[in-house]
Amino acid sequence: MTQPASIALPQQVGVVNVGLPLFAGALADQGAPVISVDWQVPAGGQPALVAALGRLYGVHGERIEAANAEVLRRLDSGVPVLTGITTVADAVPGLGARVLLHCGPALRYPQAPDPLRRSMQAAAVAEGWAASPAEAGELLASERIGLSPANAHRVVVPMATAVGPGAPLYVVTNEAGGTTAFAPLSQGPGEVAWFGCATDASIARLVFLRDVAAPVIWEVLRRTGPVDVLAIAAQAVTMGDDVHVRTQAATNLLIKEWLPHLTETGGAQAAAFARFLSANHLFFLTLAMAAARSLTEWAGRVPDSSIVTSMSRNGTTFGVRLAGSPRWFTGEAPEVGHALYHPGRGPGDGARDIGDSAVLELCGLGAAAAAGSPAVAQLLGGSMAAAAALTERLAAVCAGQSSRFKIPVLGNVGTPLGVDARKVAELGTTPAVTTGILHRSAGTGQVGAGVAEAPLACFAEAIADLDRRLTGPAVA
Length: 476
Known about the structure:
Blueprint: E1 15-18, H1 21-29, E2 34-37, H2 47-57, H3 61-77, E3 80-87, H4 88-91, E4 99-102, H5 114-126, H6 133-141, E5 146-149, E6 162-163, E7 168-174, E8 179-184, H7 200-224, E9 227-228, H8 229-237, H9 248-265, H10 267-278, H11 285-299, E10 308-314, E11 317-322, E12 329-332, E13 336-341, E14 354-355, H12 374-379, H13 384-395, E15 398-407, E16 413-419, H14 421-427, E17 432-438, E18 446-453, H15 456-471
Parallel strand pairs: 1-2, 4-5
Antiparallel strand pairs: 3-7, 3-9, 4-6, 7-8, 10-11, 10-14, 11-12, 13-18, 15-16, 17-18
């Protein structure tokens, strides 16, 4: 009988370790070649969610990918332009004589955090509905002043903002999509209502914006014509703005464009507005928000998509919506971490994350552009590598890249675009949002800035709902 050939055993074995790094470390300590693969159970191992993701990537995958491609095209190709100034009453006909629009998902006055309550009070006094913040608080508590979420009316408002019918709004139009969105004029820094102050100074600022700033801006726009908002934002990103916590470059570029026409306008009102502009490094913020909202309004009309087109918070709840669905999915508004506080302030002073400005992260700005912003790096300890990691975190859950916003320090790569809720649920990685921090109870305004991490549960619920819509009600 023929003897079988002997088999030579390998003298050295290389190992691919999947999952726990402990095993890879033990092998490396023994000098064995090892490659460690960072893997975890999808969706935290939740059976129903894993099954839903299986269908959304599988049987429904082609349908969703086609919808997502169209959402990305709309977010990336729309050209929002500032065309004018209007008021809340004209932008939202039929709103009601005594109704305030507020940031985030819908809520009642008792549910609102302290900074938002104070902002509502200041807005009510500025409208002439009350003689004092205290009287305004009584009217709001008894619901003799109504509330409605700004997002429901194509309006986006920053931080703890509330606006009444007489408040001025930017009109930003995206001609390609036939969509128009609105945002209030930036109140600037200091003792202001959007920072949770209900004082004589904060109310005076609201009146100034309505009676002085808005007419001057309207006159300047009459002379300049429409302003391509995101063309300015794109240039500002290359100059260190994330166009969320830092809009200084964008503001300066806009001022440069407006300066000759502002000078020609002349008069005491133009001079007062110029002084206000010179001290308002956040002036461009709300304009960028309106531009982003005009894009998400267009993108949100695409059915069967897993891309997030609304992401907002009111200081109590955090909410998201997917393209093609009117339904909000909410969770508790997060605390703001990775924060840089003003001297003498700390985490115990900060209110929870608040405002509609997270719409910027959905369009390639904010945390998506953090890698090129030294200002964001300061919030993360001063390291540009940490800022780049913030952008990479968002890229991991996005479906594409922006063709208009480029990050020079990353080789002019486009910023992450289109948050895919499937990826969020699969990886357990939620979008991060660069944001300011308000005092939670004292009404003294901003106490710092930082990065908030969106709650995971609302994305998982949105994915479960998408699965039900595509698969049918029989899916548990």
